[in-house]
TrEMBL record:
InterPro entries: Cro/C1-type_HTH, Lambda_DNA-bd_dom_sf
Protein's organism: Modicisalibacter xianhensis
Name of the protein: HTH cro/C1-type domain-containing protein
Residue stretches making up the HTH cro/C1-type domain: 18-62
A GO MF term: DNA binding
Length: 269
């Protein structure tokens, strides 16, 4: 039994219209989520991280004694409510305005770009955009190659996405080691169905050099039927000219500068 965990989870759910609404936002089966709420089961690692990211809490906080956790949550909500009415802090105002028109972009994507740490390789990561409160958040997961005989390890980034003046801005931070911020700017899609988005990514090479780099990037929307496990299994380093990939995609992430260009520029697909 996990009484404190279940009580804490029920408290967080109480700030939403219904349990069904929470399950829909989390994409978690209602019957399975009810088992967590009853204390009969505790979520496994992937589901637990998903729940913590959604509610904005840490795993160890969710396991606190219920009275302690309740005080923590109430203190956080009280601080949020102290912003004067009609005078929101500019990040809050930007957060709300930047979510307008973002509904059509929610979902999962493969992200492709030339690896900053391993030149000559192409990196495929998984990005999940979802609505939270009045804004849009996302998680980006890098699947790193295992050592011989080992298992793959992951880097996870959490961030916010905003659409401002016909550009999509994504800013995130690395959550495991806390050693990187990245920014991505994408062109929106002007087609009826969002399939691919292109733009630029600015970050730091994940090696001892830690060289700031800018690369072209493509987001490819995934079929809703693909499971999270299936998507993650396809992430990792690829050959720079992988014949299994669409030549148009490979061309879109090629980091060249055309004659007459004075800056490294994004390109439409």
């Amino acid at each position: 039994m996990h009484d404190d965990f279940a009580a804490n989870l029920r408290l967080l759910c109480s700030y939403y219209p219904s349990i069904a609404d929470v399950c829909r936002r989390l994409s978690i089966n209602r019957a399975q989520f009810n088992r967590y709420l009853s204390g009969r089961y505790r979520p496994r690692n992937v589901a637990l991280r998903q729940i913590c990211t959604f509610f904005g809490v840490k795993e160890d906080e969710l396991a606190m004694p219920h009275e302690t956790f309740q005080t923590l949550v109430q203190a956080g909500r009280k601080a949020a409510e102290q912003v004067p009415a009609g005078e929101p802090a500019w990040p809050a105002a930007l957060w709300t305005r930047g979510s307008e028109g973002m509904e059509r972009y929610l979902g999962r994507y493969f992200e492709y770009y030339r690896s900053m740490a391993q030149p000559g390789k192409l990196l495929r990561t998984l990005v999940c955009l979802e609505s939270r409160g009045d804004g849009i958040v996302y998680q980006r997961t890098e699947r790193l190659q295992p050592r011989p005989g080992g298992r793959p390890c992951h880097n996870r980034y959490e961030g916010v996405a905003l659409k401002l003046a016909e550009r999509i801005f994504l800013i995130d931070h690395e959550t495991i080691n806390g050693h990187e911020l990245t920014q991505t700017i994408l062109f929106p899609s002007f087609q009826s169905r969002v399939s691919r988005l292109s733009g630029l990514k600015l970050g730091v090479a994940d090696n001892s050099e830690r060289m700031p780099c800018c690369v072209r990037v493509v987001y490819e929307r995934l079929d809703a039927q693909m499971t999270l496990r299936q998507a993650l299994s396809q992430c990792g380093l690829l050959a720079a000219e992988d014949p299994a990939l669409d030549p148009q995609l490979l061309e879109a992430v090629h980091n060249d500068i055309s004659p007459g260009e004075h800056h490294f520029r994004a390109r439409f697909l």
